[in-house]
Prior knowledge:
Residues 3-88 form the DUF7079 domain. The chain is mostly helical and 95 residues long.
Amino acid sequence: MDSLVNTLRLTGLAPATLGAMLRNDLFPTLYPNLLSVAGNWDAFDEDWLLNQLQRRRSQRRGCLQGAIDWAAWQTVGRMVWGVWTKVKCGLQAQR
């Protein structure tokens, strides 16, 4: 956890900004991995991830995709929210 906190701290981004990125960019892109028993559990290819995030941001999101993302956050998001809460506390403690 300390390594993640230190890496995020080096970005200079506020915890609120990082939380918004988690919720609105990373989670919608990566949550299907949480639904797969055979998902990738050690790391994601950085080029693939950046490409996916750029593609997502450049596409206009419809109501259906927004509803799917919201439902996924409500059901699967709790799997990451506890970790994020600890990371956020670590970021705030180091300020």
